[in-house]
Amino acid sequence: MLSTKSFPVIEATLPIIAERISSITPNFYNRLFAAHPELLDGIFSRSNQKNGTQQQALAGSIAVFATYLVKHPGVTPETMLARVAHKHTSLGVVEEQYPIVYKHLFDAIAEDLGDALTPEIAEAWTEVYWLMAHALIKIEKGLYAQQANAEIYTPWKLVERTETGVDSVSFSFEPADDTPATVAKPGQFVSVRMPMADGVRQVRQYTLSGDIEQTNRRTITVKLDVNGEFSPVIHNDLKLGDVLELSNPYGDLVIDEEGAPLVIATAGIGCTPSAAALQTLAARGSNRKVTVLHADQEVGAWPLREQMLDSIAKLPQATLGTWFERGELPEELNAKAGYMDLTDALAEDAEVYLCGPLPFMHAVRSQALEAGIPAERIHYEVFGPDVWLAA
Q1: Alpha-carbon distance 192 to 162, whole Å?
Q2: Rounded CA gap, 259 and 80, in Å?
Q3: Among candidates 308, 304, 261, which has minimal Cα distance to 282?
Q4: Sign of the Cα pseudo-torsion (157, 201, 247, 383, in order)
Q5: Residue 128 burial (CB count, 10 A)
């Protein structure tokens, strides 16, 4: 918790720092990469630096953490910290990197605020940073210890490639060496690292979309972003037999076999964790009540449609609802036109899982909250900043 000395300082300066942090972080990253250019090879995404996503993620996490400390003295935002820790460990972030981040971040803060950054304010925000950092370090050490090996990345060979939906491809990999592999859980993701045309390695995180709970196979599904750097390479250049690097599986969006009624709401390529979860539930013969909701541009664009429908057919208490922006509305898919409305699908004791673009998740999360579902029973995966959760 914040010290009694720092609490009023953070409470008073939080609006100013929260407003300025999005301007401070570009300077921070410029300083960081000037001093440590190696961090752009295999850890930080160049694309996210260019479009500002990484800056928003850092700014968002610090603002959310500080806001939480002020609103809820004595506790920390465990959900946010766990989400960040899982992302960090999939990238290989280690304890020794936190002082490096601290130095360049606070140098950037000092430059931006100038004389307004008094020693008292600097000390209080230093406390916030290290409270967050030490909490993350502790979680991350635990996550690393749970893995079947001590490696950040191991080599995996592409053994199968399957087109699914519009501009989406499923890639299946098998181990390329004898390193022990961790058994993944449905809803977890891996980081994929591979060199770009200039030889610099870039990393993207993809949810495992099938073949869960196996140690000899990993399957991801990737939607092509023609304006991106990474997905065109994996779509167009990766061939059967090629070897690339995968991290151990991470992520806390894990769906249990049994429990309260389950509502899974996804949009677009965000269906990958639900596809894996449904496949796993079906393989186990689960009797859990499951409502599957999916929104997409049109029927043919729905990635992993056949896999998901096959799994749903094997689950005795599963129902399906779909929404499409254009095209046909198949009766067998219980399809409707327009945008998702999950109100009728929500029971009081439902556990709700969301995955898709941020505007989609914001909208459906709001629907769930308005329907009386407690925030702690609404689970989601975000590959990017989620500052709207600070509200």
Answers
A1: 18
A2: 23
A3: 308
A4: negative
A5: 20
Residue 386: predicted pLDDT: 43
Task: Please identify which residue in the block is written with the tokens 């539930």.
Answer: 281
Q: Tens of pLDDT along 323-358?
A: 999 999 999 999 999 999 988 888 888 999 999 998
Q: How far apart are CA 353 and CA 300, in angstroms?
A: 23
Tokens of 260: 């309260």
Instruction: Report pLDDT for 390.
Output: 36
DSSP 37: G
Cα(307)–Cα(379) distance, rounded to whole angstroms?
23
Looking at the whole model, is its pTM more than 0.85?
yes
Catalytic site positions? 98, 140
Q: What would you measure as the largest C-alpha separation in the chain, in angstroms? A: 66
Instruction: Please answer whether residues 206 and 231 qualify as being in contact, where contact means their C-beta atoms are separated by less than 8 angstroms.
Output: no
Return the percent helix, strand and coil in the chain, to nearest 5.
Answer: 45, 20, 35
- Residue pair 266/354 in contact (Cβ under 8 Å)? The answer is yes
d(CA 2, CA 10): 9
Cβ proximity of 25 and 55 under 8 Å: yes
